[in-house]
Amino acid sequence: MKVKVIRSARRKKTISARLEGDVMVVRAPAQIDDAELQSAIEKLRSRLQRRLDAASLSNDDLEARARVLNRRYFGGRLHWRSIRWVTNQNKRYGSCTPSTREIRISHRLAKTPVWVLDYVLMHELAHLLEPNHGPRFWKLVNQYPRTERARGVSHGVGIGRGRRMRGAGAHGALTKSKTRRG
């Protein structure tokens, strides 16, 4: 993505960016130093790319996958308010709020094999019946034949980022592990 920087003496603090055609136009204060501006540009580029990626995802397709899994593994008895892609989940692959019946799936899963996406959907759908990660919850999730293989992905390379992931363990959470030195 090409970048065009417009510095302005009228701007005092804020840096903004928007896409004009295939060029990211960045507006910044005139007095900002180049290193600080470059760091801000990279953050803005990343944010803009996430928005572009999310715009190409279809919530309808995600809903259709969930309906198939609901019929196949839950006998069609599950009901939800919404299932949608989100770009603000960088430490989880999905989340479910049983009280509102809303399921959110990280955009990072869009580039994974469908069986990994299906596992995450199964995990979140199971929360509609069992809000915790107890034995009944895992019995529901384990109906999916590729559960262990998909959970194995969480033990290896993180989806879309090349980072190691913390193991799913007993609770099944799929989060990035933090390596600290010192």
Task: Give a short summary of the structure.
37% of the residues lie in helices and 18% in strands. The chain is α/β, with parallel strands linked by helices and 182 residues long. The chain is elongated, with a radius of gyration of 20 Å.
Task: Describe the 3D structure.
By secondary structure, the chain is of the alpha/beta class. The protein has 2 domains: 2-55, no CATH class; 59-155, Metalloproteases ("zincins"), catalytic domain (Zincin-like), CATH 3.30.2010.10. Helices cover 37% and strands 18% of the residues. The chain has 5 helices and 6 strands, in the order βββααβββααα. It has helices spanning 34-55, 59-74, 114-126, 135-141, 147-155, and strands at 2-8, 16-20, 23-29, 82-86, 94-97, 102-106. The strands form 2 sheets. The chain has a 3-stranded mixed beta sheet, covered by helices on one side. β5 and β6 form a beta hairpin. α3 crosses α5. It is elongated, with a radius of gyration of 20 Å. The two termini are 37 Å apart. Residues 159-182 have low confidence and may be disordered.
